[in-house]
Amino acid sequence: xxxxRTTEEEKSESRIGSWPGLTTNIKPPNSRLRLYGGAxxxxxxxxxxxxxxxxxCPPVSREKVKAKYAGRGGGRGxxxxxxEIARSVARxxxxxxxxTACERLAFVLKHLFDLAMETNHNHLCLADxxxx
Length: 132
Fold this sequence. Notes:
Shape: elongated
Structural class: mainly alpha
Number of strands: 0
């Protein structure tokens, strides 16, 4: 089994593709290196950070703010309305990126698990051969 994957190999083998909402391809500095384990995990996290910085937060209309604020009394009502709007916008904006990051990270961890199982199997085989 091959130990590391480049970014392109990870994307094609996991069938996840590019980051949603981006028109350009993110290429981290170490995208051509065959990484596994923690290094591959960190590379995906770096790509996620780049993706989140590259996507523009959708605008919030005045009508939406008025609708959320309507019916809330006092000064605290506007704070609650603002927090509710921020959560809603963040969900719609970040959820697809988080889903992609989780899928890519799951692929990296599954590959690491497969490597650990293979290494363990090899060690057990070597240990058995010594006693024969």
